């Protein structure tokens, strides 16, 4: 007995055997094959059907109808969910219809669908109506719970829409879709077979169950029931497995591109900050501040924590709007944020390729990373790297981008002296003639990058340079 309880498969087999014995005992008590056939009679009936080609044709056609409706529901729910998230007016139009669909019994819909589409087409439409609301709301929930910091990263680096959907939005909503699929797959098969039982399309499982009811063959009804249970379980496992693998495939699609040699160099003008003010509540962060960032200049915001360095960088990156004044310039921006901002489950290489493979080959990305990181760490998920190693990945990502203005917020925190020198050297080499603004409270960072101090010191008029 102890071995039985420890082995999961043996426990499962014992549970199954118990219920088969109970079923057989109950059928003997009832003593009527019309009312309740036993497991042996059901197994014999199923065994007779398996060699028949029509048996597999019936399963195949019902499978095709239900999978068609299910697939259409998933695709449409993702499209409408994304549209409703981006445009609230879309949600205002869609939500009443979805509430109506959820509230009306599926049988009522099936009757109407029979009139509109005929018996051959009612099944996929019925499945669609059952599955669509569930996946639609799952998509919306996933989008609402997106990672805000990663969203800002993607916005600053200007990741194209296709890659944004593949590596950011889809991984964000996938857990919600996956949880919904555990219920929706079974519900889709139930609604699909119910529609077939009412519509009676030719060569369908529903038609065969209906005929078994007419002939009072409980053994055949049980046989088809077990077929349905088996198909539903297999479909659920297949859908869940596909969803689990989908994130890796999405990343493969997003990274499937070669460096472009025609990336246009556009004229870079100075970035002008004119009379900019920024407040959070009663707290003044920046007040009537003006400065011009000349192309190729290197400026360091040298001040203690809480003095507005991060806010100023966020203003330059377009992540914050000034309360007064304006920021003018056409510079493309890349940034190392104050807090770590990486795709945690992906490698250091992937974290850089997704933003920089349009401008640099994988070989060039490896070379830049190997200058500041051990080679064995480059293909490990960044979640397994130390804080200092993660910081270096973010630094290389910003420097290899196609940006004209590089913003670094405490980029060298957590680095030892030897690694710090390597980071200074790599920054100097990869920065070239681009503009740099670094926020730091460490004097060595300023000297290491040969930067001019832009000291944020509050005065009566605002901030002094």
Topology:
Elements: H1 2-6, H2 8-30, H3 39-49, H4 53-86, H5 88-103, H6 106-117, H7 122-144, H8 148-157, H9 161-199, H10 205-214, H11 218-254, E1 271-280, E2 283-293, E3 298-302, H12 309-317, E4 324-328, E5 333-336, H13 348-356, H14 362-370, H15 387-399, E6 405-409, H16 417-431, E7 435-440, H17 443-448, E8 452-453, E9 457-458, E10 463-464
Parallel strand pairs: 3-7, 3-8, 5-6, 6-7
Antiparallel strand pairs: 1-2, 1-4, 9-10
> Quick one: biggest sheet?
5 strands, parallel
Uncertain segments of ≥5 residues (pLDDT<50)?
458-465
> What is the strand tally?
10
How many domains make up the coordinates? 2
CATH-defined topology of the largest domain: MetI-like fold
What strand line-up does the widest sheet have?
5-6-7-3-8
CATH architecture of the largest domain: Orthogonal Bundle
Structural class: alpha/beta
Distance between the termini: 80 Å
């Amino acid at each position: 007995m102890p071995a039985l309880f420890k082995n999961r498969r043996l426990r499962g087999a014992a549970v199954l055997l118990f219920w088969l014995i109970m079923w057989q005992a109950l059928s003997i008590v009832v003593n009527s094959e019309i009312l309740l056939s036993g497991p042996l009679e059901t197994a014999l009936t199923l065994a007779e059907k398996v060699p028949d080609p029509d048996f597999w044709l019936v399963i195949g056609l019902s499978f095709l109808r239900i999978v068609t409706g299910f697939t259409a529901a998933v695709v449409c729910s993702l499209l409408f969910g994304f549209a409703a998230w981006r445009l609230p007016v879309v949600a205002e139009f869609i939500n009443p219809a979805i509430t109506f669909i959820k509230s009306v019994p599926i049988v009522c819909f099936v009757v109407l669908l029979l009139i509109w589409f005929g018996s051959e087409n009612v099944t996929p439409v019925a499945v669609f109506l059952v599955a669509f609301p569930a996946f639609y709301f799952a998509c919306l929930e996933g989008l609402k719970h997106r990672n805000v910091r990663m969203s800002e990263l993607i916005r600053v680096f200007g990741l194209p829409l296709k890659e944004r959907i593949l590596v950011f939005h889809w991984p964000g909503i996938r857990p919600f879709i996956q949880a919904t699929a555990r219920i929706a797959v079974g519900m889709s098969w139930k609604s699909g077979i119910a529609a077939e039982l009412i519509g009676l399309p030719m060569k369908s499982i529903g038609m065969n169950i209906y005929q078994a009811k007419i002939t009072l063959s409980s053994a055949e009804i049980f046989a088809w029931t077990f077929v349905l249970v088996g198909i539903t379980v297999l479909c659920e496992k297949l859908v869940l497995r596909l969803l689990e693998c989908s994130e890796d495939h999405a990343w493969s699609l997003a990274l499937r591109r070669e460096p472009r040699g025609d990336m246009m160099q556009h004229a870079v003008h100075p970035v002008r900050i004119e009379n900019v003010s920024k407040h959070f509540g009663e707290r003044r962060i920046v007040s009537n501040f003006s400065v011009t960032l000349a192309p190729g200049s290197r400026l360091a915001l040298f001040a203690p924590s809480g003095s507005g360095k991060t806010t100023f960088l966020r203003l330059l990156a377009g992540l914050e709007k000034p309360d007064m004044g304006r920021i003018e310039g056409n510079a493309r921006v890349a940034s190392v944020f104050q807090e770590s901002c990486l795709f945690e489950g992906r490698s250091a290489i992937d974290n850089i390729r997704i933003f920089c493979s349009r401008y640099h080959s994988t070989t060039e990305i490896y070379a830049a990373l190997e200058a500041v990181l051990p080679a064995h760490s480059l293909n490990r998920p960044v979640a397994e790297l130390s804080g200092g190693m993660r910081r270096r990945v973010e630094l290389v990502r910003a420097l290899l981008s196609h940006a004209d203005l590089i913003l670094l917020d405490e980029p060298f925190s957590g680095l030892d002296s030897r690694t710090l020198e390597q980071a200074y050297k790599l920054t100097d080499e990869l920065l070239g003639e681009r503009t740099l603004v670094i926020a730091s409270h460490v004097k060595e960072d300023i000297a290491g990058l040969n930067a001019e101090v832009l000291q944020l010191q509050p005065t009566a008029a605002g901030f002094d340079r």
